[in-house]
Amino acid sequence: MAALNTNVVPLAGIRFDDKLVAAAGGGDTAAPGAGVILVVKNADSGSHTVTLVTPGTVDGLAIADRTLAVAAGQTAVILLTDRYRNPSTGRASITYDGVTSVTVGVFRVA
Fold first, then answer.
1. What domain range includes position 8?
2. Per-residue model confidence as pLDDT tens digits over 12-43
3. What distances in angstroms separate CA 22 from CA 56, 65, 105, 110, one per listed residue?
4. Residues 28, 2 contacting (CB under 8 angstroms)
5. Which residues pair with 83 in a beta bridge?
């Protein structure tokens, strides 16, 4: 797993297209929190599914992981709230069903 850096969005704004990096085949991790988003760009010719691991439980029952299908040629934004924070690492775990032509970036609104 690759550790994604968080880009802070200043008041003046920020370009994000030049900050996206290749999604890691084994998945990525990121620091979740208030105002943090994951941007996923799929330049492939087919859809790809992004999964955010939800480490919490309710009454001893696992909370389902969050999945989002990103269509071919599309870009998606997913909130990375603290509900995805792994208590042992402090980071969110992100996996992909495929990484061909998939780029990602993490941004936090200041």
1. 2-109
2. 999 999 999 999 999 999 999 999 999 999 99
3. 28, 22, 9, 25
4. yes
5. none
Place of tokens 């620091």: 31
Count the Cβ atoms, other than its own, within 10 Å of residue 101: 16
Report the sign of the C-alpha dihedral through residues 79, 87, 50, 69, in that order: negative
Q: 21: which strand partners?
A: 104
| Number of compact structural domains in the chain | 1
CA distance 51 to 97: 8
| Closest to 17 (Cα-Cα) out of 39, 44, 38 | 39
CATH code of the domain covering residue 14: 2.60.290
The pTM of the full predicted model, rounded to 2 decimals, is: 0.94
